[in-house]
Amino acid sequence: MDYHSPHFFGYLIAFIHLLGLIGAIHALLTVRTAQGSIAWAMPLLFIPYVALIPYLVFGRSSFDAYIKARRQANREMHTAIGDLNWRPWIEEAVTARRSNAYASLRAMPKLGRMPCLANNEVKLLINGEATFAAIFEAIRHAKKAILIQFFIIHDDDLGRRLQTLLLEKAAEGVAVHVLYDGIGSHALPNTYSAILRDGGVQIKAFATRSGWLNRFQVNFRNHRKIVVVDGLRGFVGGHNVGDEYLGKQPPLAPWRDTHVEVVGPVVACLQESFAEDWFWATRQLPPLILPDTYPENGVLCQVLATGPADAQETCSLFFVEAIHSATERVWITSPYFIPDEAVFAALRLAVMRGVDVRILLPSRPDHYVVYAASSLFAFEAVRAGVRIFRYEPGFLHQKVVLVDSEITAIGSANLDNRSFRLNFELMLLTVDSDFASEVEKMLNDDFALAHEIALEERKQTHHLQQLGMRIARLISPIL
Fold first, then answer.
1. Which of 181, 204, 397, 432 is catalytic?
2. Would residue 404 show up in a list of annotated catalytic residues for this protein?
3. Exposure string for 295-331, b = 16+ CB within 10 A, e = fewer
4. Selected catalytic residue, list 155, 399, 416, 432
């Protein structure tokens, strides 16, 4: 090729546009939503010089390689456990007592890959001090195995406290496995992991760039937060490992978040989710422990593990089903509010049915583009009759759903497209009136510290801000 030829740049431009056309066709064939397809296809066709590299990095919405790894992990789990049923006590524990509330979630038995199990004990952990005090206490008493998974681990005071504790348990002969997201924990220095490895801890990054096709891909994130100790005690929720989650880093402090501690049969499902992710990272299984006994009474629980390897948008469908099942109220807290059309329609219909629909959002942004898009959706929701509140004391990061008087869901899933379709998420669904009352009290305390958005506030927003919100909404399907 003669780079000095007057035709060279013409060939180059034609080649780039050909790649843009191929990329646009790929987007139309693979992106799961029409909005997302259009958001990618149009710039790929008309400005491929700008859009090709972002599409290469962010464009894929299915994670086929993980599906194959998950199938292999499940086969090896069943082989390793032998004659035991890995999903334990199915006959005794699945819906051991009838629940009209769970029956209202008619799609959940098929939507979730894991069963709804009875006889679990659950404890609400409000904010970072309570959460990490409980997690660290459970780790100190570990005898056999510790499984830890977080989206973010920081090498700060809290991260080093966890590191020290894990090294102590590994020195005692406890099997310790730590999994973190390679993108979420991009700032974690190699020395942090090296110290743990030298001390006998198995630590790996969940890398979504494995394989040639995923080489440049950073779209998928493992956003799950799981801790399991000795197969007996589990923890799930919104916290990551970092000082900001203890409210020690302004301007977002104080940090508002929620976790749940659980004991009972459903802990086996937390292990199963961790094992699938660990197998993707290592092609090995972690230690899997089934306890001999479990509580004789307790709460119905179901683990909902969702992600881009699912055949359908499991996370989005869960929110739709939860909202549609509500007859009295549906309260949702999330740091981000970028619902897809199905979820937004479900919210509007719930209002029309006379359901008390409330959404609690932060008043401080941690990502300005996402906050701008969330603000526009919030104004539209208020116009539709949804009550939108902004939590004022600090940044609100909790992900909580309360439906009527029995159903709750607490975990890692946000009310946005990334959680619906691009992140690996995990929610713990509970069906129990007493626990729901605790969650109701917690949320009422949060609402008391929040400002309710009024319709008039949209008119008071500056025109440039409104323009920014609308631009942010245009790219919201790919945020």
1. 397
2. yes
3. eeebbbbbbbbbbbbbeebbbbbbbbbbbbbbeeebb
4. 399
